[in-house]
Design a protein that fits this description.
alpha/beta; 3-stranded mixed β-sheet; 10 helices; globular
Length: 321
């Protein structure tokens, strides 16, 4: 099956190409069009009319969550919603049968109330990033509903088009440049970890499990729906620091500095644009456990193929390379 991937040069796009190119012809779309191994052709957004017929569209393109808070709210809307509108209209008018949209758990909630976050929770994002992803989801659902109603009125079956909205939690793997990479650089310096006082549990999503999900959505005829994507087990930040120390053959040193001192340092970082600021502190220390039960039921599996520890170990090894 011919597959179009938007955001082909990004972190997730590059890794998807590496795994899907062995099984499917791949086309790309991005803001630039350099040649990429395994991709037949890459198009810029203004040349959508030149895209050849494809069966699958995977929409990754967008602005990621900016922990430095330099991205304006309108930029999130212009890109995360605007590009989604363009590519989804292309999908509805095309012969493509499946549309896979990468949203985020942040489209639902900035913090988890209770033990886990489920798809049934009423979305209430607070950040511009989360709101932009939710707006994109709403647009897709509204436009799909209009299209299905029009097909029904014309006596045409609409079930041949499937739409999957994925809400992954923090994705990690080769090429990751987010907080995990920052933690790795920190561990390399062989200095004590100062946030040991925070005892959190957080869900992650390894690229191996994410690719497994994508393969299944491509190959199986699942009903259109919204799915959260996460590894089965949650990890604490202290767990990750231990994994990093073991991988680097460093002595594990975790300091339990009082939280009020850490919060004060983070507020100082807000004003001085230091690596540790209030938002990054929250991401590193909050508990955010995401349920993947709905997805596993749909796929007919009891467990995801990669454990959280195995996936994280592979990510750490990629940092070392």
């Amino acid at each position: 099956m011919n597959i179009l991937i938007t955001g082909i040069h990004g972190f997730i796009g590059s890794n998807l190409v590496n795994t899907l190119k062995e099984h499917h012809p791949i086309y790309g779309m991005d803001i630039v069009t350099p040649q990429k191994e395994g991709v037949l052709n890459t198009f810029v957004w203004s040349k959508m009319d030149r895209i050849p017929p494809v069966e699958i569209i995977i929409h990754l393109a967008g602005i990621a969550h900016d922990t430095k808070n330099k991205t304006k709210a309108q930029e999130y809307l212009d890109i995360n919603v605007g590009l989604t509108q363009k590519i989804f209209q292309h999908f509805l008018k095309s012969t493509a049968t499946k549309f896979i949209f990468f949203s985020s758990v942040k489209a639902v909630a900035d913090s988890v109330i209770g033990d886990q976050l489920f798809e049934e929770v009423l979305p209430n994002p607070k950040t511009p990033y989360g709101r932009s992803k939710l707006e994109a989801e709403k647009y897709i659902k509204n436009e799909l509903g209009k299209w299905e109603e029009e097909q029904t009125m014309n006596g045409i079956d609409h079930n041949w088009k499937k739409v999957y909205i994925l809400r992954p939690c923090m994705i990690h793997g080769p090429g990751n440049k987010g907080n995990l990479n920052l933690l790795y650089q920190f561990a390399q310096k062989d200095i004590p970890w100062p946030l040991g006082a925070y005892k959190n549990q957080r869900s992650f999503c390894s690229l191996e499990n994410l690719v497994y999900v994508i393969h299944n959505l491509i190959e199986k005829d699942l009903e259109s729906d919204i799915y959260q994507v996460a590894d089965d087990e949650s990890l604490s930040t202290n767990d990750i620091i231990k994994l990093l120390a073991d991988s680097l053959n460093k002595k594990l040193r975790i300091w339990n500095i009082p939280k009020w001192i850490i919060r004060l340092a983070a507020k100082l970082g807000d004003h001085l644009h230091l690596p540790l600021n209030s938002e990054r502190l929250q991401k590193l220390t909050e508990s955010y456990v995401v349920s993947n039960s709905k997805l596993k039921i749909a796929l007919g599996i009891d467990r995801m193929p990669f454990s959280a520890l195995n996936g994280m170990a592979l990510t750490i090894e990629s940092f070392k390379r």
